[in-house]
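Sequence dictates fold. Below is an illustrative record:

_____
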Amino acid sequence: MLQNIDKRKLAFNMDYSFLGIDKNPVTRFTFEDKKKFLQDPGAIDKGIKELADAVNSVNVLFTMNSCQGFLIESERDEHCQETYVDFYVVNHQDQIANMLLTSLVSKFDALIDCKLVYEADYNFISEDEVEVNGFVNLRYGIKLYELRPDLMATTYREIIEHIKRFAVAANKQPSEVSK
């Protein structure tokens, strides 16, 4: 029975020497990283800011890329064709991000697309030069599908409210998710 198994034995300790490294290659973001990423609130399109703010209200999540896409009809030509928010996780609290995405897909079905992308991490040498460092960023994403304007407005509000309710519950977790 799972209840009788020592929880320490459930931890996945692997030898990463076959990768030429000695530790887990997943980048570990910190609350300091969250603070740095969120320094420039003007970097988030105004049309998707409420969704980004809802994601950022979960203590261990922080947005790093977004586009309002089609949300504001009069501005859609100035933005990419997709409407999305991407985010990272602090302190390897990936189960919280996974639960958020699971809850969104469960509630909003095919109106939303949630994903996890494994992206190579880089050291920035200069403005024009990067160097692969062997680490991997786990990049989570929420993408909205375009609906009729009236339905889009109500669905967008429901998604934001769902994430806010999720944040309240997630932020009650033990100290690993606290600031």
In short: The mean pLDDT is 85. The chain has one domain: 19-173.
